[in-house]
Amino acid sequence: MRTLKWFLAVSGMCVALAGCGGGGSSGASSSTATTSTAVSTAFADPTATPVSSNSSNTVPIVVSSVSNVLNFPMVSIRICAPNTNAGLNCSTIDNVLLDTGSFGLRLFASAIPTGTYNQLTQETVSAQPLAECASFGSGNTWGLVRRADLSMSNEVAKNLPIQVISDPALSASIPTGVSGCMTGSNMATVADLGANGILGIGTQPYDCGADCANGAVTGAYYVCAGSTCTPTQVPLTSQVPNPVTQFTTDNNGVIVEMYQVADTGAAKANGTLVFGIDTQSNNALRGTSATVLSTTAAGNMDASFEGRSYSKTAFFDSGSSGLYFQSASLAKGVKGFYTPAAPTGLSAIFTATNGATATVQFNVSNGVTLVNSGNFAFNNLGVALYNGIDIGMPFFYGRHMYYGISGASSSVGLGPYVAYVSS
């Protein structure tokens, strides 16, 4: 798993939870900046607008105050009894975090109505129930792997392995110690996350893949006998997959498209999640003059910024509430929020795995002012991060962000890749 970094707004304060990849930051109040910096002119905001969310391969995206988390893109999903073509014992689950930095569907058991939950069959390995710990740096999700049919618009993934977080049928506590989960505390409730679950739709087909298929990996999959859990080898067919790969069509990637918001923020933002790339008239990459960057399977690239180089630790991630990077030139407030005196334009050079480069431009405004504004959608919220460049949700506003899944083909060749259009 990779990154989730987000900000929980509480009474004008904010608390940040950092994900895999390290770094991150915590709360900020209305304190003033501690240093000064020269100001450069901000770049013009991107202006690409989403396609309709009423098509057969699209669903709406909403950023709002519904979870009390800043810059949290949410979608609704429908899960049903497995192997019913999404036709029996179905329930709609709202407020599921759309995360392009992770892979697989994870739902809290408490968010699944009993009639549907009781129909979700348990996955087993060697005749023992299969459990999983998915690690996001500041916290882990722990629960059983179950089978469900997933429906989003007209797209259906049948008999899909998903993680049910805090599954009441799992009596064993989250593993700790040498053979335990990687790091962080247990995110056991909806309130811990700020969403009813996570829809991981990044560039990787499985959440663990060949590593877990070839041997037991500590901090991933477990079989549990009573209260004792042991890491276990898991075939790909039993692992939690990127659900898009299980669709019959439109299964080679996704596009995240968001309307632009004001530079001072907005109470709400809307967009469209589009399934497939170059498979229908509304998801073309061919002919768009997009910036295309090939990545590692997990969506990572090299980058350079302010004279520092980053090896395979630069990425674009809708599950991160801010723009996370290290800057010696920007003023900072407490807890790492950048606080320039005026909106400031910055550029990083991203290098794709095929050697292609792109200048990634973004703006940063006073983060303390932004998070205390009462708004929930921001296109210029920057936070200090010291071991990578995480281009999070602020970059997505006004752009079409394409995620080509590893091994899947489109007009630009095989994935994995990330591409974007800004107008």
Describe this structure in words.
The protein is mostly beta strands and 423 residues long. The protein folds into two domains: 178 residues, no CATH class; 189 residues, Cathepsin D, subunit A, domain 1, CATH 2.40.70. It is 4% helix and 38% strand. It is built from four helices and 29 strands. A seven-stranded mixed beta sheet has the order 23-22-19-20-25-21-24, with no helix packed on it. The protein has a six-stranded antiparallel beta sheet with strand order 3-17-16-26-29-18, with no helix packed on it. Strands 5-6-13-7-11-10 form a six-stranded mixed barrel. The longest helix is centred in the middle third of the chain and has 5 residues. The chain starts with 5 loop residues before the first strand and ends with a strand. Pfam families: DUF3443. This is Lipoprotein. It comes from Paraburkholderia phymatum (strain DSM 17167 / CIP 108236 / LMG 21445 / STM815). InterPro entries: DUF3443, Peptidase_aspartic_dom_sf.
Strand order of the largest sheet: 23-22-19-20-25-21-24
Proportion of helical residues: under 10%
The tally of domains stands at 2
Helix/strand/pairing class, anyone? mainly beta
In CATH, the homologous superfamily of the largest domain goes by the name Acid Proteases
Described by strand count, sense and barrel closure, the largest sheet is:
7 strands, mixed
What oligomeric assembly is this protein in? single chain
Level-2 CATH architecture of the largest domain: Beta Barrel
Strand-residue proportion: 35-45%
Mean of pLDDT:
90
User: In CATH, what is the class of the largest domain?
Assistant: Mainly Beta
What gyration radius follows from the Cα positions, in whole Å? 20 Å
Pfam family, one: DUF3443
Protein name: Lipoprotein
Keywords: Signal
Signal peptide: 1-18
